[in-house]
Design brief:
heterodimer, A: alpha+beta, 5-stranded mixed sheet, globular, B: alpha+beta
Chain lengths: 754, 155
C-alpha cells in the first residue's frame, strides 16, 4: 500500500493512523493518500464511497467535499452521513476534500449541494453502518437483521450486547462493501441530526482567530505577490518602468504575466507582478511601478452608454422565448395599459476575503491551496495553462471568507501557479487587494427589463409582456455572444409563474465589455426586481390591494407547463420537472404566510409602508415582506423583514435561517448602494467608500425567517433569499412615500414626500 | 524593533517602520487572526486592541505602536472563553466567519467601556465592521448576551 501523506493531514487526522481501522474508500482525500492500516486490500473500494473512515478508537472522519463559504455545508452533509451511520457527532472529525473527480461535482454554486449529494452521503453512511452491523453479528453469532446501530455502537437488543464502532472497525474493514441495493436508509423517525442540526464545525476556531482561510495559508519560504492589471479588460502593458519598484527592500522580482487569449473564460488576466518577501513590500513595490497601458478593444466601454443601449434593446422587439395567447391584441384592447422599464447596474461580489491563492509548481507538478468554490475547475485550468498532466495537479480547499460566486472562477489560482513557476518552484501567495477585487471582478450583469401589462375594466390582469436585455455570461466563454442563453433566461424570466391569459417573453441582445460572472442568485436578481415590482405597479393601477392582486396573478395551485408555451430547453436548475415542478400552490402559500406574519393590511401612517414579493428560484419558494420607514426628507430605514421560505427537506435549520437572514442584508446592500460604473473601459470604484455595502446601522434591523416544513425534495437555500428582497423593499417604499423605484440602486434617488 | 503582543515581547528584524501593524502581525509575528479586507480602515476586519482600545491595524504604522500592549483575537482570552466568544458560539453568529475576529474585538472593546450598551450604542460602535454574510442581527443579539454573561461573571 502507498502511504504518501500530506503533513497537515497527518496532524489533523492523527488518530487515524492505527492498524486495523475501517476506511471506506481506499483513497480518502485524493492524491494525498491516507490509508488507515496495513494489509488493506486496495481493490475493495466501493465507488463512490470515499466518504468515511473509522479507526480502532472509534474516531470517525467524514469528508466534506463541497466548499465552505458560510452556508454551513461543511457541517450539514457530514452531519447527514453521521446520522445515517449512527455515529455520535462528538466523535466526528471533518476532513475537507481536495479537488477529486471521484466526488462528483465539487462546484459549490447553484444552491445544489444538498439536493445533489444528500442521497450519496446517506448511502455512504448506510454502507458503513451495514458493515459494522455485519461485523458485530458475526462476532456474536446472531443475525444482522436483529442488530441496530445507534450512539456510536452496534446493539443486539435481544441479548443486551453492544460493541462500539472502534471495537468493530478492524473486523468491518475486512468485509466486502455492500452494494447499493442491500442498503436501507433510516426512516425519518430515526433521524437524530437531520432536521435538527449539530454544533457548527468551525465556530470555535473562528471566534479564536484559528480558522485558516485562503489568505492565512502559509508555507515555509513563501513569497508574497500582488499584480498590477490592465484597468481595461484585454489591455496590455505598453511600457513598464520597474526600477523604483525593484529598489523597495524585500522586493525580489518584477514579472510580466502574459495576457489571456480571448475569450477569457477562467484564464488569468495577465499583468505585471511584484514578488516580495512580505505582503507590504509587494504592495509598496507595486505602488512604485510606472506602467503605460494599451487599452485594447474595450477601451471605450461606458456604463452610462450601456444602460441606454440596454434600455433601447429592452424596449424594442426581441427574440420570443415564451408565448401564451395573443399579447399584442390583448394589450391594445385592455381597459388600462401600464408600461415600465426597470434597470439594474453591474454589481461586484465584494466577499470579505478577496481572491488569493498559494501555489508551488515544480518537478512537473502543481500543488495549490485556495479559497476556491470549484477545486476541479482550478485543477483543469492549472493543467491547461501550465501544460501539466492533470493527474499532477493537486488543489486543496481552504475555508472561504465569502464567495458569492466570485471564487468559482480559478483565474486567481492560476496567477499564483504562474508566479511560482517564474520563481523556480518557490511557494508564492498572490493577494488581491480590495481595489483589485472591485476593479477586476467577474461582475453581475447589468440589465434592462421592459414590461407592459393590460388590465380589464374590473382591474383583472389580462396581458403581460416582458422583455429583458443583459450582456450574457456566454460572452465569458465565446467572443461576440450577445443573446441571453437558456440557462440565464431560466433564472426567473421564462418561468414566470403568473396566471395571465395572454403572456409573451422576449430577449434582447447586448454587447459586453467586462468579465461577467455568477453572483448570488444571478439573473434572478433583475428578473425578480422587474416582475415583482411590476406586479405591484399593476395592482396600484387597478386600485387593488397588492397582496390580493399578487395572489390572483399567481393563480390557482397548479404545475406550470412551460413547454406548452414554446419554452425550449428550460433547465429547471438542473433538475427534472417531474421531481421539481413549478408549483404555484407552494408560491401562494409562502406569500400568504409572509403577509400574515408582517401583519399585512394594518393601518400605517404616511411615511411607513409594507411591500411584498414572492419568487421561485433554485427550486425553493420564498416570499419576503418588508416594512419601511421613509422620513419626510427621504431617509430610509428598514425596521422589519419577514421571510417565508419553502426549501423542501432541510438538514440544518439554523444554517438555512442564517442564509435567509444574510440574503436579506445582501439584498439590502445591492438595492441601496450596489453599483459598479465604468468610463473609458475602466471601472471607477475601488473600495468600500465608493462601493458601499450594508452596515449594521443601515441593514434591516429585525429579520424574521420562517421555514415551511414539508417532505418535498431538498431545494436551494443559499441564493433564493436574494431575489425577492429588492422588489419587496421598493414596493414598501411606494406604499410609504409614493415613490416608484424602477432603477437600482436607491442611492441618489429622492424619496422625500409631503 | 520590539513589540508587546498578546502578553509576549516580540523582536522584529528588518521590518519597515511604515509597515501597517496588520501586516507585521500577519507576515512577521505569525498571527493571522486579524484579517485584511480593505486596507483603508473601512471594513474593520483588521481590528485589534492597542492598550485596550479598538484600532484598525491596517492603517496603523508599526512605528506608532511603541511599547503599548497589542491584543489580537488570539490573545483576547487564554481559553477562547471571553464572554463575546462564548456568546458568539451560543448564537451561531458566524457564517463564513472571516469578519468575526474584527467584530469580536470591536464588541469586546465596546463592552469594556459600556457594559450594558443600548442598540444605538451597539450600532455606533459596530458600524465600522462590515459583514457581507449579513450576520448583523445575530451580532447585536450576541453583544447583549455577552453583556449579560459579563455581568453574571463580573468580567
Amino acid at each position: 500500500m502507498s502511504a504518501r501523506m500530506n503533513v497537515r493531514r497527518r496532524e489533523f487526522l492523527g488518530g487515524l493512523l492505527g492498524a486495523g481501522g475501517l476506511l471506506l474508500g481506499a483513497r480518502l482525500v485524493g492524491p494525498a493518500v491516507l490509508l488507515a492500516k496495513e494489509g488493506e486490500d486496495e481493490g475493495a473500494t466501493f465507488e463512490p464511497n470515499l466518504w468515511v473512515a473509522i479507526d480502532t478508537t472509534g474516531a470517525v472522519s467524514i469528508v466534506a467535499h463541497r466548499s465552505e463559504m458560510g452556508t454551513g455545508i461543511r457541517t450539514a452533509l457530514p452531519m447527514a452521513l453521521a446520522d445515517e451511520l449512527g455515529a455520535d457527532w462528538e466523535q466526528v472529525t471533518i476532513v475537507q476534500a481536495d479537488g477529486d473527480a471521484r466526488y462528483g461535482s465539487q462546484n459549490t454554486d447553484g444552491s445544489r449541494s444538498v439536493r445533489r449529494f444528500l442521497p450519496v452521503v446517506r448511502e455512504a453512511g448506510a454502507a458503513a453502518r451495514l458493515m459494522l452491523i455485519r461485523a458485530a453479528a458475526a462476532e456474536w453469532g446472531v443475525a444482522a437483521e436483529d442488530c441496530l446501530a445507534r450512539d456510536h455502537a452496534v446493539h443486539h437488543p435481544a441479548t443486551g450486547r453492544s460493541l462500539g464502532f472502534g471495537a468493530l472497525a478492524a473486523a468491518a474493514a475486512k468485509l466486502p462493501v455492500p452494494a447499493s441495493d442491500e442498503l436501507e436508509l433510516r426512516p425519518r423517525e430515526e433521524w437524530r441530526y437531520i432536521g435538527r442540526g449539530v454544533p457548527l464545525a468551525d465556530q470555535e476556531a473562528i471566534v479564536r482567530g484559528a480558522a485558516t482561510y485562503g489568505i492565512d495559508f502559509r508555507l515555509p519560504g513563501m513569497r508574497h505577490a500582488v499584480i498590477a492589471r490592465s484597468p481595461v479588460l484585454g489591455g496590455r502593458p505598453k511600457e513598464v518602468d520597474d526600477a523604483a519598484a525593484r529598489e523597495v527592500a524585500g522586493v525580489l522580482d518584477v514579472v510580466t504575466l502574459e495576457p489571456f487569449q480571448a475569450p477569457h473564460a477562467f484564464q488569468a488576466l495577465g499583468g505585471v507582478a511584484v514578488i516580495a518577501t512580505s505582503t507590504w513590500a509587494a504592495l509598496e513595490g507595486r505602488r512604485r511601478l510606472k506602467i503605460e497601458w494599451e487599452p485594447g478593444p474595450h477601451g471605450s466601454y461606458d456604463t452610462d452608454a450601456e444602460r441606454e443601449a440596454l434600455t433601447q434593446a429592452a424596449q424594442a422587439s426581441g427574440r420570443v422565448v415564451r408565448r401564451r395567447g395573443e399579447v399584442d391584441t390583448a394589450l391594445k384592447t385592455a381597459h388600462t395599459h401600464v408600461s415600465a422599464t426597470y434597470r439594474t447596474p453591474l454589481l461586484a461580489h465584494a466577499s470579505m476575503e478577496p481572491p488569493c491563492a498559494v501555489a508551488v509548481v515544480k518537478d512537473g507538478t502543481c500543488e495549490a491551496w485556495a479559497p476556491t468554490q470549484n477545486p476541479q475547475a482550478a485543477q483543469a485550468q492549472l493543467a491547461q495553462d501550465l501544460g501539466l498532466d492533470p493527474t499532477k495537479v493537486t488543489v486543496h480547499v481552504t475555508l472561504l471568507g465569502g464567495g458569492f460566486g466570485r471564487k468559482s472562477k480559478p483565474d486567481f489560482v492560476v496567477e499564483a501557479a504562474k508566479l511560482s513557476q517564474a520563481r523556480g518552484g518557490e511557494p508564492v501567495q498572490v493577494l488581491w487587494t480590495r481595489e483589485d477585487d472591485l476593479r477586476h471582478d467577474y461582475y453581475h450583469a447589468p440589465a434592462a427589463v421592459h414590461l407592459e401589462g393590460g388590465l380589464d375594466a374590473q382591474g383583472k390582469p389580462v396581458a403581460w409582456l416582458q422583455r429583458s436585455a443583459f450582456p450574457t455570461i456566454g460572452s465569458t466563454f465565446a467572443a461576440g455572444a450577445k443573446a441571453g442563453n437558456a440557462l440565464e433566461l431560466g433564472l426567473g424570466f421564462v418561468d414566470l409563474p403568473f396566471a395571465v391569459p395572454h403572456l409573451r417573453a422576449e430577449n434582447g441582445e447586448a454587447e459586453n465589455h467586462v468579465r461577467i460572472g455568477w453572483l448570488r442568485s444571478v439573473c434572478h436578481i433583475f428578473h425578480a426586481f422587474a416582475t415583482s415590482s411590476f406586479a405591484d405597479e399593476l395592482a396600484h393601477a387597478a386600485g387593488r390591494d397588492p397582496l390580493e392582486f399578487l395572489l390572483e396573478l399567481i393563480g390557482e395551485p397548479r404545475h406550470v407547463d412551460l413547454a406548452a408555451e414554446g419554452v425550449e430547453g428550460y433547465p429547471n436548475h438542473g433538475e427534472p420537472l417531474d421531481r421539481y415542478p413549478i408549483d404555484t400552490g407552494r408560491l401562494r402559500r409562502v406569500t400568504e404566510l409572509a403577509a400574515n406574519k408582517i401583519g399585512w393590511g394594518r393601518e400605517l401612517p404616511k411615511g411607513r409602508g409594507l411591500g411584498i414579493a414572492s419568487h421561485r428560484s433554485f427550486l425553493s419558494y420564498v416570499a419576503t415582506a418588508v416594512e419601511v420607514e421613509v422620513s419626510k426628507d427621504g431617509q430610509l430605514t428598514i425596521p422589519t423583514v419577514h421571510v417565508v421560505a419553502d426549501c423542501g427537506l432541510i438538514l440544518h435549520p439554523d444554517r438555512v435561517v442564517a442564509q435567509f437572514e444574510g440574503a436579506a442584508v445582501f439584498g439590502a446592500s445591492l438595492a441601496r448602494t450596489g453599483q459598479i460604473t465604468a468610463k473609458q473601459g475602466a471601472v471607477e470604484q475601488s473600495n468600500f467608500h465608493d462601493y458601499p455595502v450594508a452596515r449594521m446601522s443601515d441593514a434591516p434591523r429585525e429579520i424574521h425567517v420562517h421555514l415551511v416544513e414539508n417532505d418535498a425534495p431538498p431545494a436551494g437555500a443559499g441564493e433564493p433569499g436574494v431575489p425577492p428582497f429588492a422588489p419587496a423593499l421598493c414596493n414598501a417604499i411606494f406604499a410609504a412615500a409614493g415613490k416608484r423605484i424602477r432603477d437600482l440602486p436607491l442611492a441618489g434617488q429622492d424619496l422625500s414626500w409631503d | 524593533m520590539k513589540l508587546r503582543v498578546n502578553g509576549r515581547e516580540v523582536e522584529l528584524k528588518g521590518v519597515d517602520p511604515a509597515t501597517p501593524l496588520l501586516w507585521v502581525l500577519r507576515d512577521h509575528v505569525g498571527l493571522t487572526g486579524p484579517k485584511f479586507g480593505c486596507g483603508m480602515a473601512l471594513c474593520g476586519a483588521c481590528t485589534v486592541h492597542l492598550s485596550g482600545q479598538a484600532m484598525r491595524s491596517c492603517v496603523l504604522p508599526v512605528a506608532a505602536v511603541g511599547d503599548q500592549e497589542v491584543t489580537t483575537i488570539e490573545g483576547l482570552s487564554a481559553e477562547g472563553d471571553h464572554p463575546c466568544q462564548r456568546a458568539w458560539c451560543e448564537g451561531n453568529v458566524a457564517q463564513c466567519g472571516y469578519c468575526q475576529p474584527g467584530q469580536i474585538m470591536s464588541a469586546a472593546a465596546l463592552l469594556a467601556r459600556t457594559p450594558q450598551p443600548s442598540d444605538a450604542q451597539i450600532d455606533a460602535a459596530m458600524s465600522g465592521n462590515l459583514c457581507r454574510c449579513g450576520t448583523y442581527p445575530r451580532i447585536r443579539r450576541a453583544i447583549h448576551r455577552a453583556a449579560e454573561l459579563r455581568q453574571e461573571e463580573g468580567r
